[in-house]
Design brief:
The complex is a heterodimer of chains A (172) and B (177). A 5-stranded mixed β-sheet of chain A has the order 5-4-3-6-7. The termini of chain A are far apart. By secondary structure, chain A is an alpha/beta fold. By secondary structure, chain B is mainly α. Chain B is 60% helix and 0% strand.
């Protein structure tokens, strides 16, 4: 029995290291979940003179998707987002650090998956949302509370596993 | 000689370039006190995009933005603790390089101590077992006496000249038993 102890200890260590291979270091738990979504008023991309503020959609469940024109994964996400969302929930975009003013022509060309995309040019609002990478998506409930933060692109599998059940619960 | 002179001249030409390269980046503000505070604080904060760098040493654009944000908070009169608190509220404890001691991090902080105690306990147990080792059953007293004699003889050989006896003597580890 005693001579199996080192092998057992090695096996336990091995299991931990193996699980570690599948952890995403970018997936940091957000302390904002369960807290009110930070308020802001920002100009809407491609619609001069218009602004958007989260207080305008109070009473509605909505998504805030952080994206940037220089983020190719975000553009890929744009292609699939409308089909997954299927008008179940309004999606607003936060355009992060669009220093080269590419967002408006890009959305016009590719078609925008957003009800409206706001222009966070200097990234100050993104900092208040604790954004570290693009894309990131926040689920905000009727009371303006952040209920979930998803880091990385929304794939159909992610949508079904994480978004669908939560939306069903929040919208019921 | 000539080529060496030429090399020296070249090196002298490069001096101003090297001088410029070694200059630290000019601070973004004309308030050196605030900048010093910022740098001190940023040493202990993690750059959230380049996860293994501190906010002070990172050149990532988010780190630049965050430093600007901290500057602004400091200008608004917030204390260092308040600044750190507001960053933790957005990015979580992850932004701190020194994780706080709380139930979630007990294992992290206590782990090394736990392993040290475990190691010490194992070492003590092993030593104790060796100390109290009894001669194995089934070994006759004659055999034991003979073994002791051989060991003694081996010991006597040791201080003498090894070359004379020709045998290789080993130090006796077993003496205390």
């Amino acid at each position: 029995m005693r001579r199996w102890i080192p092998l057992l200890a090695f096996a336990v260590l091995g299991v931990f290291l193996y699980l570690g291979l599948y952890l995403n270091p970018k997936e940091v738990p957000s302390p904002l979940v369960g807290r009110p979504a930070p308020d802001f008023t920002l100009p809407v991309v491609g619609r001069p003179g218009e602004t958007f503020s989260p207080s305008e959609v109070r009473g509605e469940v909505w998504l805030l998707n952080i994206w940037a024109p220089w983020c190719s994964v975000c553009l890929e996400e744009h292609r699939h987002l409308p089909r997954m969302v299927a008008d179940r929930v309004p999606v607003y975009g936060l355009t992060w650090k669009d220093l080269d003013r590419e967002a408006a022509p890009l959305l016009a060309r590719n078609g925008s998956p957003y009800v409206a995309a706001v222009d966070d040019r200097d990234g100050r609002v993104a900092i208040r949302y604790g954004v570290t990478v693009t894309p990131e998506t926040f689920v905000i409930d009727r009371d303006g509370m952040i209920r979930m933060k998803h880091v990385g692109p929304i794939t159909p599998a992610v949508w079904e596993r994480k978004f669908e059940p939560l939306l069903r619960e929040l919208q019921s | 000689m000539r080529s060496r002179l030429r090399l020296l001249a070249l090196a002298l030409c490069l001096l101003p370039v090297l001088g410029a390269a070694s200059l630290p980046a000019a601070p973004n503000t004309d308030d050196p006190v605030l900048e010093a505070r910022l740098n001190h604080l940023a040493e202990d904060l993690r750059c959230v995009v380049c996860q293994n760098e501190s906010l002070a040493e990172s050149r990532a654009s988010l780190a630049l933005d965050l430093r600007e944000e901290i500057r602004e908070m400091m200008r608004a009169g917030m204390s260092d603790d308040a600044v750190v608190e507001s960053l933790v509220a957005r990015y979580g404890d992850f932004v701190l390089y020194r994780p706080p001691v709380k139930p979630l991090t007990y294992v992290l902080w206590g782990g090394p101590l736990g392993f040290l105690l475990l190691g010490m306990a194992l070492a003590l147990a092993t030593l104790h077992r060796r100390r109290t080792l009894r001669p194995q059953a089934g070994v006759s007293p004659e055999a034991l006496r003979e073994a002791a004699q051989l060991l003694r003889a081996d010991d006597c050989n040791h201080p003498g000249s090894p070359s004379a006896s020709g045998t290789v003597s080993r130090p006796s580890y077993q003496e205390e038993r």
